[in-house]
Amino acid sequence: MEYGLVKVIGVISFIVFFFSMVKGRESRQKRFHKRMMEIKEGSRTNHQHGKDEMEKSFRERFLLPLALGIIKGVSLVTPIKESTHQELEKKLAKADIRMNPRDYRSMNIVIILGLGILFMQFASDGGQSFLYFLIGLFVGYIYRRWGLEKAITKRKDSIKGQLPETIDLLGVCVVAGLSFDQALTYIIERAEGPLIDEFSVVKREIMLGKRRKEALLAMSERCEVDEVRNLINAIIQADALGISLQNVLETQSKTIREVYKQDMEERAGKIPIKILLPMVAFIFPVIFIILLGPAVPLMKAAFQ
C-alpha cells in the first residue's frame, strides 16, 4: 500500500513538474505580449489586474490553470488522427461542449489514468495492482464515454422541448410581416436555449455569405433531431417552391406538438416500471423488517 502511494505521489509530481514547465513558458510569453500591449496603448491596468487576481477563488487561481496546463501538456505528446478529430469535433458540437477535440481527448486520458491509479490503491497486494489498474481504466473509459453521450441526449431533449414555442414565435413574426431572417434575429435577441444557439449560428453563417439552405442543413446535421430536420426540410421546400411560410410553420407546429405529446405520454407510461426497481431494492426489505422483525426473537426462542 505504501509503495502504491509512493507511485501515485511520483506520478503527480511528474505531471505537476511537466505542467509547470509548459505553463511557465506560456505565462512568460503572455505576460510579455500583454506588457507590450499595455505600453503601446498607454494602459495602466497592472494594479487593477492584481486586485482581480486576488479576488479570484483558489480554484480559479490555481486548480483550474493547473488542470488546463496538464491537459495542454498531454495534448502535446498524444497525437490524434484527423478522422478521429473530426468525429470528436462533431460530437462535442452536438453536446455543446466548446472545447478543442485534442484537449478534450487529453482530458479524458488524464481522467482515465487517474482512475486507474486510484483503483490500484484498493489492491490488497502487489500482484493485484495491475488488475485493479485495468479495472480503473475500464471504468474511466465507460464513464467518459457515457458522459458525452448523456450530454448529447440531454441537449437533444432540450431542443425538442424548446422547438414548439420557437416555431410559434417564428409564425407570429412572419404573420406580423417580418421575413424569415428578420424573424430569426428577433427571436435570437429575445430568447435563449440550445435551439436559439443553433439559430444564432445559422444567422451568423448567413451574414458571412453562406446560403440559407446550406446553413439550415448544417444546423440539421448538428442537432440530429428528427423534428428539427423535418422543420428545416419544410422551410427549404417552401422557399424553393414559393409556398407561404406561415402555413408551413403552422403545420409544423401542430405536427411537432402532437409528436411531443406522444413522447411525453410514452415517458409517463415507463415511470411505473422505473419505480418498481427502487421499491423492490429499498422499500420492500424495510417493510419485511418492520413486519417480521418482532417475530424473529419469538421464533428463535421457540426453536431453542
TrEMBL record:
Q: Where is it found, in Gene Ontology cellular component terms?
A: plasma membrane
Question: Start and end of every Type II secretion system protein GspF domain?
Answer: 167-292
In terms of Pfam families, this protein maps to: T2SSF (PF00482)
> Which InterPro entries does its entry note?
T2SS_GspF_dom
Supply the source organism for this entry.
Tindallia californiensis
The identity of this protein, by name, is Tight adherence protein C
**Keyword check for Membrane:** yes
Q: How does it sit in the membrane?
A: Multi-pass membrane protein
* Chain ranges passing through the membrane: 6-24, 104-123, 129-146, 275-296
Location, primary (coarse class): membrane
List keywords of the entry alphabetically. Cell membrane, Membrane, Transmembrane, Transmembrane helix
Q: Where in the cell is it found?
A: Cell membrane
